[in-house]
Q: What sequence folds into this?
C-alpha cells in the first residue's frame, strides 16, 4: 500500500467533522471523515477550542489524541498533512506557527484568508518552507465539474452566450466557491461590478451582492443573490450556441439540453432536455481533495486548487465588495 500519512485537523465544526453527522448526506463531507475513510491516511489528532465538539469528533472518528491548543498538538504529534478548518481570520496565525514544524501539506478551508495581504503571506510561507498548500474549493475536485470544464474548453457547447449564477449565504462565504468555480470554467476575469442585494445574507459583515463579471474570453456572468432563510441555493446556468448546462443542488444534480428542431414552431429551434453526455461518478468532493494532496506529494505535481487559486477567488470577492460599497463602480482586474 505504500506510505501511510499521519494527519491532523484543527477545527472540529461542520466542515471539520460535523457535516458527516447529517443522515441525509450520502457522501463523506468533512475533513475528518475523508481522512478516516482513505487507507493512505491516519487521523492521529484533532484540535478545537470547544470541548464538546472536540470530544464528539474524537469519539466519532476514534482519534487517539485530541487537543484544545493546536500549538501543543503540533509539538507533540508528528504530522504529515494538516487540515485547517477554522475561521479565515485565524489561518495566517496558524500557518505562521506551522512553519516551525516539518509538515508536508496543508489542506486549508476557504476563503484562504480574510485579506489579500494575509493570503500573500500564507502563500509565501508555504513556498519558503516547501509546504504543499491546497485550498478546499471542493468543486474542482469533483469529476463531474472537471468533465463540464473540459466540455466547455473543447468548444462542445459552442460560444457561451449567457451565464447566470444563483447563491446565498454571503459573498465571502458562498462567493469564494462561486468565483473559484467561474474561474475554473472560464479563466481570468477582466472586470467586475457589484451592488448590494435586497436579499439579505444571514452573516453579519458578509453581505449578499448582485452584479456582473466579464472574463478575458468574453464570457459575461450575471450573479444573483437570494435569501438563504427561504431555501439554500448554489446553481449555475450556462447557455451556449449548441446547448445548455444547469448545475443545481450545490453540484449534486446536473441537467443537459441540446438544440433541436422545435416541436411547436416551424423553422425554429429550441432547447430540449437530452441524454447526459458526462460520466456519472460518485460526488466524493472532499475525499478527492485528499487524494489530490497525496498525488501531489508522491508525484511532485501541482494541486488542482492551489494557494494562488484561493487568492484569486478572494481577490474577486474583495473586488465585488469594493464595487458595491462604491455604488456599483466597475473594477478592472486585468492590468
A:
Amino acid at each position: 500500500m505504500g506510505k501511510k500519512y499521519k494527519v491532523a485537523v484543527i477545527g472540529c465544526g461542520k466542515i471539520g467533522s460535523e457535516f458527516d453527522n447529517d443522515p441525509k448526506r450520502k457522501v463523506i463531507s468533512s475533513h475528518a471523515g475523508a481522512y478516516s475513510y482513505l487507507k493512505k491516511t491516519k487521523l492521529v489528532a484533532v484540535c478545537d477550542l470547544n470541548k464538546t465538539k472536540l470530544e464528539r469528533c474524537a469519539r466519532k472518528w476514534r482519534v487517539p489524541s485530541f487537543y484544545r491548543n493546536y500549538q501543543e498538538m503540533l509539538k507533540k504529534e508528528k504530522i504529515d498533512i494538516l487540515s485547517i478548518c477554522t475561521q479565515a481570520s485565524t489561518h495566517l496565525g496558524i500557518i505562521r506557527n506551522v512553519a516551525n514544524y516539518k509538515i508536508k501539506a496543508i489542506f486549508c478551508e476557504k476563503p484562504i484568508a480574510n485579506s489579500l495581504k494575509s493570503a500573500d503571506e500564507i502563500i509565501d510561507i508555504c513556498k519558503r518552507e516547501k509546504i504543499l498548500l491546497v485550498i478546499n474549493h471542493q468543486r474542482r475536485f469533483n469529476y463531474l465539474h472537471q468533465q463540464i470544464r473540459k466540455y466547455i474548453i473543447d468548444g462542445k457547447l459552442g460560444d457561451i452566450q449567457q451565464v447566470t449564477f444563483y447563491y446565498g449565504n454571503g459573498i465571502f462565504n458562498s462567493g469564494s466557491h462561486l468565483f473559484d468555480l467561474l474561474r475554473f470554467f472560464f479563466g481570468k476575469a477582466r472586470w467586475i461590478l457589484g451592488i448590494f442585494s435586497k436579499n439579505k445574507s444571514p452573516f453579519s459583515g458578509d453581505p449578499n451582492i448582485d452584479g456582473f463579471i466579464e472574463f478575458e474570453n468574453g464570457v459575461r456572468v450575471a450573479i444573483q443573490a437570494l435569501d438563504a432563510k427561504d431555501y439554500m441555493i448554489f446553481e449555475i446556468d450556462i447557455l451556449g450556441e449548441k446547448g445548455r448546462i444547469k448545475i443545481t443542488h450545490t453540484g449534486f444534480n446536473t441537467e443537459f439540453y441540446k438544440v433541436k428542431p422545435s416541436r411547436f414552431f416551424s423553422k425554429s429551434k429550441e432547447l430540449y432536455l437530452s441524454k447526459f453526455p458526462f460520466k456519472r461518478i460518485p460526488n466524493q468532493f472532499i475525499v478527492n481533495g485528499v487524494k489530490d494532496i497525496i498525488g501531489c506529494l508522491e508525484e511532485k505535481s501541482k494541486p488542482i486548487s492551489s494557494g494562488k487559486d484561493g487568492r484569486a477567488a478572494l481577490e474577486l470577492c474583495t473586488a465585488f465588495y469594493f464595487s458595491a460599497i462604491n455604488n456599483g463602480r466597475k473594477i478592472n482586474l486585468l492590468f
In short: The mean pLDDT is 96. The chain is about 30% helix and 25% strand.
